[in-house]
Amino acid sequence: MAISPTEIRRIVLEQARRANVGHIGSAMCIADILAVLYGETLRISSPGAPDRDRFVLSKGHAALALYAVLALRGFIDRAVLETYCGDDTTLAVHPETALPGVDFCSGSLGQGLSMACGAALAARMQSSERRVFCLISDAECNEGAIWEAAMFAAHHKLTNLTAIIDENGQQAFGLTKDVLEQANLADRWAAFGWDVTRVDGHDTRALAAALGPLGAGRPRAVVARTVLGKGVSFMEEGRAITQTHIAQNRVNWHYLPMSDAEYALALAELERQV
Amino acid sequence: MRRAFLNALAEIAERDPRVVLFTGDLGYLALEPFRDRFPDRFFNAGVAEQNMVGVATGLAEAGFIPFVYSIATFAALRPFEFVRNGPVLHRLPVRVIGMGMGFEYGPQGPTHHACEDVGVMRTLPGLTVVVPADHAQAAAALHATWNLDRPVYYSLGKDDRTTVAGLGARFGVGALQVLRPAQAGGAAIVAMGSIAAEAAAAADLLAAEGRPVGLAVLSTFNPAPIDDLARFLAPCAAAVTVEAHVVAGGLGAQVAEVIAEGGLPCRLRIHAVRRSPDGYSGSQAAMWRKHGLGRESLVASVRELLGARL
User: With bands split at pLDDT 50, 70 and 90, how would you rate the model's confidence at A273?
Assistant: First the structure.
């Protein structure tokens, strides 16, 4: 079934506003990737099927987009979304497996790819055709454990594993190049023994092609160039419209929650894209 | 304990294809028999403990029972958050093996001294912690815990010769092993880990001078043998604990909780590591003496506690 990235973004805005929480930009920027994964790529007959493909959202702070796509796929009830960040909820800012459809918990950066490696190795040991997809952020590549896992996957030729690197070029305190330089990120993955594809992370057709049939011999890295806050221009530009004490800064929408006015503006802009 | 534990693991792996063993590139001349017998279920993850625990989590999610092996400091401390957010948060049956309890790696120096692993790991209520006292108990403990539905941390030693007299192969999750019951108004020694043999030696010395003491071995946390400890210590006027471990989170701290929360009229002396490494290392026996954990120190404490009472 086709999933609309705009619908994911609409749910992200709605729930982020209702719960008054941030990490909006990070969730908006992976909407196209998740739409392709859950609309075309992942083979999931039901969230509990043992031989379903596995998905690890290693950049767990963008989980609201995952909740949105799980609802759009019908794996969770739309009403459950309304419990996001509430009391006694299974929908925290960072995802937990108590929620059907979440394969692995995350929230501490740098841990998901190792679990994905184990899931991929398990599939091979069980002679299963299931595949494993892991979405990590570029800033997450600051973590040494990502590279431990990268070495492990290449050494063990985990051809059923795909890492998608969401390269939005930003992290909490600034641009990734200013925080901890990791130029030529794609080349680094190639140097670690992965097949690397570069793709526009908002071009769903290109994403679908990049996430298509697996190659042989090596794990696959898809470096997806994205824009934080994609779909809402003032977020992409790092402007806080009504929160006037916040100076314009491209990383603002990593953490900021929206005011009512900003929500209305953002939603109106999304509607124009439909 | 190492050979006994690995032999038991091989027996279990023979029966159950879910058992997989990972090493962080350690266990030379120890893990080879498992590797040769189960080549498809043995992986050297390289010197990368965090990833090793993460990979084990992924395998466990698919139904495997992965064991990961390294020296205790590297197995417990380096990947601690991977254990916390991996098998503990996911409630998956990963088993972490920490080798070289306490000062067993004595001359290797402080990076190899595992004096915090039990305390650190038992801060996770969802993680069962197993600390055998000798090789027979290590094998028994594995047979009793390998198939638990929750994660387990094993703090093990390499010593496959020393036995704790009277312990036999007794082990129970959440159970205290009482080797000698305490007498009313007397003293008791409670030990954790391979230093239990030292506690038994101290008990022999005390018995020889006409002061028979109770003796018990604590081998599990989460659950800890709270009720067993309270019953064992109930008749005692004095208790002495010994562990090659720091005070925080260790055996003595657990016993103190039981005494305090149970309102037991029992004086307590905790023999544990109380100082940071000072740059000087030595054999395990020398390190035990240096930190006041040897049999002479235990005997002196019992004498003093009982003498003060009389």
Answer: confident
Nearest-CA distance B119 → chain A (Å): 23
Assess if residue B254 is contained within a domain: yes
Same domain, yes or no: B8 and B139? yes
Backbone angles phi, psi at A142, to 5 degrees: -65, -30
Bridge pairing between strands B19-23 and A220-225: unpaired
Averaged pLDDT, A29-39: 98
**Domain spans of chain A, in order of start:** 5-273
Does B227 share its domain with B116?
A: no
* Cα angle: B235, vertex B241, B243; to 5 degrees: 155
Output the pLDDT for position B308: 60
Tell me the per-residue pLDDT of B29-42, one tens digit each, with 9 for 90 and over.
999 999 999 999 99
pLDDT surpasses 60 at B309: no
Which of B50, B126, B70, B46 has its CA nearest to residue A108? Answer: B50
For chain B, how many structural domains are there in total? 2
Give CA separation, A233 vs A13, A61, A272, in Å.
14, 21, 12
Chain A partners within 8 Å of B59 (Cβ): 118-119, 121-122, 125
Question: A105 at the B interface (CB within 8 A)?
Answer: yes
The CATH number for B295's domain is 3.40.50.920
* Domain contains B231: yes
Q: What is the CATH number of domain A5-273?
A: 3.40.50.970
Q: Which residues pair with B229 in a beta bridge?
A: none
Do B130 and B17 share a structural domain? Answer: yes
Q: Are residues B37 and B129 in the same domain?
A: yes
Q: From B77, B83, B168, select the one nearest B127 (Cα to Cα).
A: B83
Q: Which residue of B has its CA nearest to A153?
A: B55
ipTM over 0.90: yes
Residue A230 has pLDDT above 90, yes or no: yes
Inter-chain CB proximity A144 and B50 less than 8 Å: yes
CA-based nearest residue to B251, from B279, B275, B272:
B272
**Mean pLDDT across B179-201:** 97
Mean pLDDT of chain B: 97
Residue B170 lies in a domain: no
Amino acid code (one letter) for B160: D
Structural domain for B299, as ranges: 176-309
**To the nearest whole angstrom, how far is the Cα of A33 from the nearest Cα of chain B?**
23
Domain shared by B6 and B151, yes or no = yes
| pLDDT at residue B310, as a whole number | 45
* pLDDT tens-digit series, residues A107-117: 999 999 999 99
The two three-digit tokens of residue A103, written as one number: 């394969």
| Contact between B62 and A123 using a beta-carbon 8 Å cutoff | yes
The pLDDT, as a whole number, for residue A69 is 98
Contact flag B50-A104 (C-beta cutoff 8 Å): no
**pTM of the model as a whole:** 0.97
Mutation site for B-interface testing, chosen from A111, A124, A126, A133 by largest number of B Cβ within 10 Å: A111
